[in-house]
Amino acid sequence: MKRMVRSGKHPLRQVAKRIEERQSSPLEKHRERKTVSAKDKAFLLHENGCEITDEMEKDGEVLCRVYHNPLPMFVEPCHSFLVGVYNYNKKQTSMRWIPREQVEKRAIRINHGDTVTFMAILHQH
Asked: Where is the sequence biased in composition, kind Basic residues (predicted)?
């Protein structure tokens, strides 16, 4: 409470103002907001990488670009598939309607040349 008071004048008013500022802080607003930028649209479906191309839903399904035939990024000290890291050739894709409930496991998508890497996000809040 002492940290909320900056001067000796009107301490109760200052405390109320600081509490109000905390409740509407931009950090809290950021947590509530869901973004739809390309970097937030990568997911893993079993061993296939998937990115949502359009937020439009049709009968509970979303349109996704699905990457096929995963390649390991590394095999030493363990196979990259064990930790959720997959490489794909950009030419081996298809467009499919995927049920929204199957598009759960978030991933990080990294483009490099003719390949794309999907890395599973293992821990989420």
From this structure: 1-16
The 10s digit of each residue's pLDDT in 12-70 is: 887 888 888 777 655 554 444 444 455 568 888 876 788 777 667 788 888 888 888 88
Q: Is residue 19 part of a domain?
A: yes
Show the domain range for 19. 2-32
The answer to whether residues 59 and 26 belong to one domain is: no
Which residues, in sequence order, are CB contacts of 44 under 8 Å at separation 6+? 50, 84, 86, 105, 107, 118, 120
The total number of structural domains that make up the chain: 2
